[in-house]
Write a structure and sequence with these properties.
The complex is a heterodimer. Chain A is an alpha+beta fold. Chain A contains 4 helices and 6 strands; from the N terminus they run H-H-H-E-E-E-E-E-E-H. Chain A has 2 domains: about 30 residues; about 120 residues, Nucleic acid-binding proteins (OB fold (Dihydrolipoamide Acetyltransferase, E2P)), CATH 2.40.50.140. Chain A is flat, with a radius of gyration of 25 Å. By secondary structure, chain B is mainly alpha-helical. The chains are: A alpha+beta, B mainly alpha.
Chain lengths: ~160, ~240
C-alpha cells in the first residue's frame, strides 16, 4: 500500500468511480425531472376550478377538484340528502353537489378535495375530503387573531400553486 | 473521516458515546412525550388529534435523514471501498424502514379523522411509500448474494439511485396539488406553527435523532461482531 508506484493507478480508479457515479446520478436526475414534467397532469392530485375553466375535461372522466368552500354557499336539498356548495380558488368557482357524510373539518372557508365528475356545469361528488392547511396554533391564539383582524381563513389551504416555478 | 473509519477506533468511540446517547434518548423521549401529550395545547381546528403530529413529523424527518445517511455511506463505500461504510449502510436501512413505517402508520391514523380517509394516492404519500420500499429493497438486495461484497455493491447502487426520491418527497407538496399540507416548519417564510407547539416538536425531533444514533451504533456493532464471527469460522474450517 505504501509503495509509490501503486499509489497512482489507485487514485485514478477512485476518481474514475467518482466521475462515473457523479455522471450516473446527474443523468438519472435529469431523466426523472423530464418524466416528472411529462406526467405533471397525472401527478396532480386535484384540479382547481380555474384549471377546469382553462382546459375542459371529458364529462364522464372521474376527477378530483380542490379549493376552498365559498363562504355562505353551503345549502341542503332540493334532492334527498343533497348537500350543495361552491368551491373557489379565488379565480373561478364551481358548484358541487354531494350526497354522503362530510368530514369533521368541513366548513365554509375550509379547503376541500372532492372526487367525482362534471355533470353539465355542476360537479357531482361521490367523496369529499377535508384538506388541512399547514397552520398549527392553540384555539386562544386563533381567537385573538380573529379579534385583531389578522385572520386569513384557510387562505393557503387549497389554493392552486403554480407547478415547477 | 478516515480516522474513525478504522473499526477498532470506531468501536472505542462508539462504546464511549453509547451510554450518554442512550441516556439522552430516554430523557428526551420522557420530556418530549410529556410536553407533547400532556402540556401542549390542543389545536384550533384539529383539537386533540394534533398530538399525533408530535410522533408523525419527527418520524418522517428521521426517515428522510436515514436515507441521506444510507446514501452517503453507499457513496463512500462505492468510491473508497470502505468496509465500515458498507456496514453503516447495512445498519441504516432497517432503522430507516422502521421510522418510515411509523410515519406512514401515524399519518394514516391522523388522516382518517382529519381528511376523512386513511390513505390517498397523492404525490407526498406515494413518494414516502416508495421510500419505504426502497429501504426494504436495499435490505433484501444486500443479503441476496452469496458473495457479500457483491450484495454490498448492488445495494449501494440501489441506494444512490433512490436519492432522486428525496427532493421529490420534500417538494412534492410545493410542486403539485396534494392532499397533504405543505411544510409547516422548514419553509422559506418561517414556521407556521405556534411556539408552544414548536418546543415539544423540537424535543421529540431530538429524541428521534438520538434514538437513531443509538440504533445505528448497536447495529454496526452487531454487524462487526457477525463479520468477525464469519472470519473466525472460515479460519477454523481451513485449519
Amino acid at each position: 500500500m505504501t509503495q509509490k508506484p501503486r499509489q497512482k493507478p489507485k487514485m485514478t480508479r477512485k476518481s474514475k468511480r467518482l466521475i462515473l457515479i457523479g455522471c450516473g446520478l446527474g443523468f438519472l436526475g435529469l431523466a426523472v425531472a423530464l418524466v416528472m414534467t411529462a406526467f405533471e397532469d397525472s401527478v396532480v392530485f386535484f384540479y382547481s376550478p380555474s384549471d377546469l375553466a382553462v382546459k375542459p375535461t371529458d364529462p364522464d372522466r372521474r376527477i378530483r377538484i380542490g379549493g376552498l368552500v365559498e363562504d355562505g354557499s353551503v345549502s341542503t336539498g332540493p334532492g334527498e340528502g343533497e348537500i350543495r356548495f361552491r368551491v373557489t380558488d379565488g379565480g373561478a368557482t364551481l358548484p358541487v353537489v354531494y350526497v354522503g357524510i362530510l368530514p369533521d373539518l368541513f366548513r365554509e372557508g375550509q379547503g376541500v378535495v372532492a372526487q367525482g365528475a362534471l355533470v353539465g356545469e355542476t360537479f357531482k361528488a361521490d367523496e369529499v375530503l377535508a384538506k388541512h392547511d399547514e397552520t398549527y396554533m392553540p384555539p386562544e391564539v386563533a381567537k385573538a387573531l380573529k379579534e385583531q383582524g389578522h385572520w386569513q381563513d384557510g387562505a393557503e389551504g387549497a389554493t392552486r400553486k403554480v407547478p415547477g416555478s | 473521516m478516515h480516522r474513525f473509519a478504522n473499526p477498532t477506533r470506531f468501536l472505542r468511540l462508539a462504546n464511549a458515546v453509547l451510554p450518554w446517547l442512550g441516556g439522552l434518548t430516554v430523557i428526551l423521549f420522557g420530556v418530549g412525550l410529556y410536553q407533547a401529550l400532556v402540556i401542549s395545547p390542543a389545536d384550533y381546528q384539529q383539537g386533540e388529534t394534533v398530538r399525533i403530529m408530535y410522533v408523525h413529523v419527527p418520524a418522517a424527518w428521521a426517515a428522510l435523514s436515514g436515507y441521506t445517511a444510507l446514501a452517503i455511506a453507499s457513496f463512500t463505500f462505492l468510491v473508497w471501498r470502505h468496509p465500515l461504510a458498507d456496514l453503516a449502510a447495512r445498519a441504516a436501512s432497517p432503522i430507516g424502514a422502521g421510522f418510515t413505517a411509523i410515519a406512514l402508520v401515524t399519518g394514516a391514523l391522523w388522516g382518517q379523522p382529519m381528511w376523512g380517509t386513511w390513505w390517498v394516492w397523492d404525490a407526498r404519500l406515494t413518494s414516502v411509500l416508495i421510500l419505504f420500499f426502497l429501504y426494504l429493497g436495499h435490505m433484501a438486495l444486500v443479503n441476496a448474494f452469496d458473495d457479500s461484497d457483491r450484495g454490498s455493491r448492488a445495494g449501494a447502487v440501489l441506494a444512490l439511485v433512490g436519492v432522486v426520491n428525496l427532493p421529490i418527497i420534500k417538494f412534492s407538496v410545493d410542486w403539485w396539488n396534494t392532499l397533504h399540507q405543505p411544510a409547516s416548519v422548514l419553509r422559506m417564510d418561517g414556521p407556521k406553527i405556534a411556539g408552544e407547539m414548536m418546543t415539544p416538536l423540537m424535543i421529540m425531533a431530538g429524541a428521534y435523532f438520538a434514538l437513531f444514533g443509538v440504533l445505528m451504533i448497536l447495529r454496526i456493532r452487531s454487524l462487526l461482531a457477525a463479520r468477525r464471527l464469519r472470519q473466525l469460522r472460515l479460519a477454523v474450517q481451513e485449519t
